[in-house]
Automatic annotation (TrEMBL):
The family this protein is said to belong to: Belongs to the heme-copper respiratory oxidase family.
Keywords assigned by UniProt, alphabetized: Cell membrane, Copper, Electron transport, Heme, Iron, Membrane, Metal-binding, Respiratory chain, Translocase, Transmembrane, Transmembrane helix, Transport
Recorded catalytic activity of this chain's protein: 4 Fe(II)-[cytochrome c] + O2 + 8 H(+)(in) = 4 Fe(III)-[cytochrome c] + 2 H2O + 4 H(+)(out)
Domain Cytochrome oxidase subunit I profile: 1-531
Compartment list: Cell membrane
Membrane protein topology class: Multi-pass membrane protein
Name this protein carries in UniProt: cytochrome-c oxidase
Length: 531
């Protein structure tokens, strides 16, 4: 009976999206409707082909979405790094904005594609995938509902396709980290509610009485992102047959709402979710318990209480009331302490196993990621201080800060998780080549240093040039002067991107060969009460 209902539902969605495509007012909305039509058609055919087949009993863990998820995480990573490296060189060499590609592949269209590909496609798929794996292993329970798990997984991938095609075709809200237009926002809301229900349902049917701390971080990421997403994306579509919409908020209220969202997207998507990764995969790879479980609980509660208040530091010296930006600065500085508590907890988990840094390149990658987490969470509060922000804001220093965190913290911990998961998901004795992991580690680390250091140098130089005045009080440098002065550092940044991308390609090859060539483990891993 349920299969028949699904067929009716998918059929109705296909008809609706076909109608929307036929009435579309712009190309972006037409393509989005056709993606919906294709997705519904694939789901309809898959359901139809499965009708009448005997269903296998649901035993063990549901690792199907996890297997596909780790593959797509690696794929989206390579795509995001490739686009990022290309647009880095477009800034250094503007002639790379080819006339024939204007309106589709110029910097303005590719830049949001890059940020969303790295954050939401690579990072988001990694978070959804690892959360499915971790919650099952730490609760000893299968995911609450198989169908819902597959819906969440594929629904999120459809979100990525809707966003990516929209950016290339000009559909964007123009809000940092929130470029999705209204139809993508609505779809992601449905998927995210399903994600929350799935995660909560799995925790409620757990066989272990204790909820491990990694699950607290994953859960805070899911709940808070839902709240941020809904409030910041309140908008009214200009037409139900077009991609454009009008924001409900305006002026300084819109700016405040945007950076309440923007900073907490960093805080809960790029920090809390990845801390869930850290608290599971670092102890597992090190084969050591978390250094201080009590510290991990303090880290969690302090982080989620303080982070939510820090957004106004993005709006120093603007129309935002001074008390609001000062409040954001104060909470940002306080936030340094719990952040470093988490970093220390992650690093000290290796107590008694420091020798693994010499022999295990995967744990080395994880430890460096925790180190970058510590550096970024020191630099961020420092840059939120008004005296520092007056120099750094609107400069490339901010770009260097963001990328040292994204590439160093988020990228490296995700790479480590992928290297951990691939052998276990395909029942292999280990990764195909530790030597290739080592190559990846050094290329990625050197690439990050090139990128961040060049942006720190050019950002501080830029800020100093902007504020330089002559004896009569006039500005010495024009904006064009600062752009010309930055050229060497832009080239260095591009080289750093090439190194990081090369490391990711080596990883993709290594993971592929792990599946194809690595020797099998002696015994297939079975579902255990908790790992």
């Amino acid at each position: 009976m349920w299969d028949y209902l699904k067929l009716v539902l998918f059929g109705l969605i296909a008809v609706l999206t076909m109608y929307l495509a036929s009435e579309a007012r712009d190309l972006a909305f037409m393509v989005a409707s056709l993606i919906g039509l294709l997705s519904a058609a694939v789901a309809f055919i898959y359901t139809l082909r499965g009708m009448g087949n005997a269903r296998a009993p649901k035993t063990g863990y549901l690792d199907g979405p996890v297997r596909i998820g780790v593959i797509l995480t690696a794929f989206w990573g390579v795509v995001g790094f490739l686009v990022g490296t290309w647009i880095a060189f477009q800034l250094a060499f503007p002639n790379l904005n080819f006339a024939w590609a204007e309106g589709y592949l110029n910097f303005g269209r590719l830049r949001p594609l890059h940020t969303s590909a790295v954050i939401f496609a690579f990072g988001g798929t990694g978070l959804v995938t690892t959360s499915f794996y971790v919650v099952q292993r730490t609760t000893g329970a299968r995911l609450w509902n198989d169908g819902l798990a597959w819906f969440v997984f594929w629904g999120y991938q459809i979100t990525i396709l809707l966003a990516a095609t929209g950016y290339l075709l000009g559909a964007t809200q123009g809000k940092e980290y929130a470029e999705f237009e209204w139809y993508t926002d609505w779809w992601l809301t449905v998927v995210w509610v399903g994600y929350l229900l799935l995660y909560m349902g799995t925790l409620m049917k757990r066989k272990e009485p204790h909820i491990y701390v990694a699950n607290w971080f994953y859960l805070s990421f899911i709940i808070t992102i839902a709240m941020l997403h809904v409030v910041n994306n309140l908008s009214i579509p200009v037409s139900l047959f077009g991609s454009k919409s009008v924001q409900v908020f305006a002026g300084v209220q819109d700016a405040m709402t945007q950076w309440w969202y923007g900073h907490n997207a960093v805080g809960f998507f790029l920090t809390a979710g990845f801390l869930g990764m850290m608290y599971y995969f670092v102890p597992k790879q090190a084969e050591r318990p978390v250094f201080s479980y009590k510290l991990s609980i303090i880290h969690f509660w302090a982080l989620i209480f303080l982070y939510i208040w820090a957004g106004p530091h993005h709006l120093h010296y603007t129309a935002l009331p001074d008390w609001a930006s000062t409040l954001g600065m104060v909470f940002s500085v306080i936030l340094w302490m719990p952040s470093w508590g988490g970093m220390i907890n992650g690093l000290m988990t290796l107590s008694g196993a420091w020798d693994k840094l010499r022999t295990d390149p995967i744990i080395r990658m994880m430890v460096v990621s925790v180190g970058f987490y510590g550096m970024s969470t020191f630099e961020g509060p420092m840059m939120s201080i008004k005296a520092v922000n007056s120099l750094s804001h609107y400069t490339d220093w901010t770009i260097g800060h963001v990328h040292s965190g994204a590439l160093g913290w988020n990228g490296m911990i995700t790479f480590g998780a992928l290297y951990f998961l691939f052998p276990r998901l395909w029942n292999k004795a280990g990764i195909y080549s530790n030597r290739l992991v080592s190559w990846h580690f050094w290329l990625a680390t050197i690439g990050i240093i090139f990128y961040a250091a060049s942006m720190w140098v050019t950002g501080i130089m830029e800020g100093l040039m902007w504020r330089e005045i002559d004896a009569q009080g006039f500005l010495v440098n024009s904006f064009a002067d600062t752009v010309a002065a930055k050229f060497p550092m832009y080239v260095v940044r591009g080289i750093g991107g090439i190194l990081y991308l090369t490391g990711a390609l080596i990883m993709a090859y290594n993971l592929w060969m792990t599946v194809k060539r690595a020797p099998l483990a002696r015994e297939a891993s079975a579902a255990a009460p908790a790992e």
